[in-house]
Amino acid sequence: MTESTAAESKSNEDNKVVTISAPGKALIAGGYLVLERPNPGLVLATDSSFHTTITTRPPHYVESLERGGVCNDDHNNGSDTTLNQSFPLDVYSPQFHETYTYSVHLNTKSTEQSLSLRPRFINQPSNSYIEKTVIVTLSTILAANANGKESSSSSPIHELISVFHKSSDKKTLAIKLRADNDFYSIVPHLKEYKLNPIPSDIHKLPSFLPCPMSEVETEGPSDRNDINGEVKKAKTVKKIVEVNKTGLGSSAALVTSLVGALLAYFNVVSIPAAGNKKEVNNKDFKLVHNLAQICHSFAQGKIGSGFDVSAAVYGSHVYTRFDKSIIAFVMDQLSNDLAQCQDGQKVIMVNTGLKLWNCVSDFDKWNAEVEQLALPPGIQVLMADICGGSESPSMAKKVLAWKKNEEEEKKVADESEVGGVSGSTSTSTCTSGAREWLELQKVNISLKNLFQKGCVDGISRIEDENSLMDAIRRSILDSRKYLKAMGESAGVPIEPDEQTKLADDTMGIPGVIAAGIPGAGGYDALFVLYKENDGSSSDTTAIRDTIGQFWMDWCDQRKKDGKRGVVCPLSCKCAEFGQGLKHSTLEW
Asked: Considering only 211-215, 225-229, 262-266, 499-503, which range has the smallest mean pLDDT?
């Protein structure tokens, strides 16, 4: 290799840019059921995605110092005497008006070897999802080289540290996070651009719109007296970011794209430009899926069902969750490591990283199930953001507590039945809650079969098409009925009356097959299945504007009745099975 060729190779490596995208989701059937094996959930991925871009750039300093942050950067000021290897890392989140600056330190001198993530500025804000995902993923990368072997002195982390220390220019590993507009409410932006909340107008908005900011007046410490000797508190104005999510699973898509981008940047996995049905079961996708499930659970502080992360990796599919025990021990170890941390640091022991690698790479142990799913030909989905919002974790907790109580009541009733003529348990002792759960399971399987039949067999005649759509409509209505009854029994607003009216009224629009509340339910979202061409127009997108206009009129009427609320359609459509995690051409 000539000197010029070597220099060109180094330049290309220095300018390396990797962008990995992960889609959002909508769970249209299997809400609450999917929390427990072996119940499946029908999850649609969206063509709106979260994007993580990684490259190298000059370190981010100026803005942090200007806002009063104190430099805590051992990597560049030469004060690092206890940790022998480190590199700076910056995370840019322009839509949140924030840049997070860190130093990554590898401690190989002490008997307890570790990897740590330190804030470079003392007063900088923190982001648990970003920080925990970065340190867990880097710890896993440290425990594996590009060929999937256990860690060594030539791991990708060591190589990056060596490159940064040999470089004459100050460089940082730079990460930029961007989300398509559908993940956060666009209602304020529609007002700003004088556009209506209909799909054709929404497509006119610029990409990657920032979340709006508002000013809040806060009282500081008591620092002065007025002329009467009374203590007065200093008042300051603070700007805060208004984050209004739309229910597409922004945290899962963020974590999955960030995990995928880090693994791809360090050559641990290879992610194709566009997934396909033959590739989604390869080891690289499984590795990203398994590690993202751990990162997302660790950031949330609980082990969820994981359907949102799975959709971010595999696209639309039928999902059956993994056993919690598969990652519970790793979660405990991570919590123990971080419990020892101070001053905003995130430290993970190298031994924990080895356990992480062994866990995520043991593919035979993971028992999550992924089956192909797509909307039948001629059917598409429209999602809606409904201002209001609900907290799905607390709702799920209440529903599961209610279900446990129902099961205990049934057990007591069953025991009282024992001793009859046949000695068998009577089905009449089944509580109303247990019956609703069982009926939901039946409807869930029915919907799964209908979708898969429409995709595999196709629709050859108009009579078959109408029959399939009628069956889907009835099944979704049944699912809504049982979920609403279950919510009323549990005291949880799974399908509030306002949502029932909106969904029912929407189903009256010609071409609409069904409407319902995705996921855990609540007030914040709606999904609509519709015929792409209802016969009145050759334009397959016209019905989306028809639905959007209907929602505008519906909200206007509510305002006249003294009720508030905004129903805003999202621009996304359904992404097929295999159209999940992908390499993107999006540049920095």
From this structure: 225-229
Neighbours of 223 (CB within 10 A): 9
To the nearest 10°, report the CA torsion of 25, 29, 34, 35: 80
> So what's the pLDDT on residue 39?
95
pLDDT in tens, 305-326: 999 999 999 999 999 999 999 9
DSSP codes of every residue in 517-541? --TT-SSSEEEEEEES--SS-S-TT
Q: CB under 8 Å to 327, separation ≥6 — which residues? A: 293, 294, 297, 303, 359
Exposure class string for 85-112: b at 16+ Cβ within 10 A, else e: bbbbbbbbbebbebbbbbbbbbbeeeee
Q: What percent of the chain has pLDDT over 70?
A: 79
Closest CA to 494 of 437, 424, 574: 437
Instruction: Say how many Å lie between the first and final Cα of the chain, rounded.
Output: 30
> Is 94 in a helix, a strand, or coil?
helix
Contact status, residue 571 vs residue 181, Cβ threshold 8 Å = yes
- pLDDT mean across residues, the chain: 84
- Smallest Cα–Cα separation from 501: which of 441, 448, 567, 546? 567
3 state SS of 1:
coil
Looking at the predicted structure, is the pLDDT value of residue 297 above 60? yes
46, 61 Cβ separation under 8 angstroms: no
How far apart (Å, rounded) are the C-alpha atoms in residues 343 and 528?
47
Residue 179 — pLDDT band, cuts 50, 70, 90?
very high
On the question of pLDDT at 71 being above 70, the answer is no
Q: Angle at CA 579, nearest 5°, toward 575 and 585?
A: 110
Decide if pLDDT at 349 tops 60: yes
CB hemisphere CA count around 342 (13 angstroms) = 0
Pairing status of strand 525-531 against strand 98-107 = unpaired
Report the C-alpha gap between 469 and 450 in whole angstroms: 9
Nearest alpha-carbon partner for 312 in 585, 514, 8, 581: 581
What order do you get walking across the sheet with 567-569 strand by strand? 512-516, 525-531, 379-386, 567-569
- Local structure of residue 212 (DSSP, 8 states): P
Question: What is the rounded distance in angstroms from the CA atom of residue 107 to the CA atom of residue 104?
Answer: 10
Lowest mean pLDDT, pick from 27-36, 98-107, 119-128, 186-195 = 119-128
- Are 383 and 249 a contacting pair, CB within 8 Å? no
Dump strand ranges (E) for 277-333. 317-320
Question: Which of 134, 66, 145, 136 is CA-nearest to residue 102?
Answer: 134
- pTM for the model stands at 0.89
- Please state, in angstroms and rounded to a whole number, the distance separating the CA atoms of residues 586 and 262: 16
